[in-house]
Amino acid sequence: LQMLEQQVVGGEQAQNKDLQEKHKRRKKYADERRLQLLAALQEANEDSSERALLNVYDSIQEEVRAKSKMLEKVQEKLQAAETEIKDLQLEFGLEKMDYLSTIRRQERDLMLCQQLLDQVQSLVRRDCNYSNLEKIRRESVWDEESGCWKIPEPVIQKTHLP
């Protein structure tokens, strides 16, 4: 039963020694490569600052070089951060100016519309419901779906004398 199981587990090539050796070599190579990558990552993550903290230097020149490299890296990071801050401030300033110009333009358009309404209101017949702007504003409803105002239809109210 064990012999049959050994033949079945692993498929047709279970007894192939060359294939087993090839598999072991690939696995060994993959493990070595993984260890190399882990070591490279650890080395990249560990700054020379750890070495500077441990004071493991052969000479003062080596310590100066290590601390200089560390200082250069910090200065590069600082420079990059300052550049990013300036870019963001510039972008914010441009957006702010754009918003302000949009607001000013909309205020001018609103003033034009208000002046037009004031001029035209005197021309509207008194028996029309559009003669009273405040009443129209009260009766108007904002429609969220269409994104516009629903204004009451104009109606002329005829008064009949008895």
Automatic annotation (TrEMBL):
Keywords: Coiled coil. The keyword Coiled coil applies. The keyword Coiled coil applies. Residues 57-91 form a coiled coil. This is KIF17 protein.
